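for the writeup, i need someone to sanity check this before i put it in the appendix. the sequnce is what the collaborator sent (i think, or maybe the updated version? ugh). structure was predicted straight from it, no edits. if anything looks off just tell me and ill rerun, i have time this weekend
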Amino acid sequence: MHKIDCLNPEEIQLLKDFNIKEKILSVFYYYWINVSNPDEHYHFIDVIEFVFDDSSSLVFKLNDEDSGIAITQKFEFEQYKTSLQTEFLQQIRLQKMEATTLEIWKSALMTAFKQITFIEEKGYFLNVTFWIEFKNQKIGVHFHPVEGLVVTKCEGIL
């Protein structure tokens, strides 16, 4: 039987707490970069951080089982980066990039943040897809087992 990947009660409460916020000021992507092959560096988004107007942060990251998205308020970038480099013998790098200026976020962040939604199935709250809703658009954050966190603009859906 296939295990259903779902949010734990703490993650559900975090989403409820953040859904009362009014404005996301910035978005950061943390890229996992595999440099073991000098001819081709493989990379994907491992962590996404949303910074709100009250300076609080909400973090989406690949969970420890690599089976979905974990949600937290705290992300220790330097500690995580060092741990990855040690575990993977310096073959993995973690790079932080401000995503606020990317087109997908630029227009959304100019409007009010509405809420973060997710899929509920048979009483479970799944941790594989989330929608960040703004007044003028909806952006999806999806878990992919090979490509990491995938960010997409939801066309025609509000």
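The first helix runs from residue 9 to 18. The chain has a mean pLDDT of 90.
thx in advance!!
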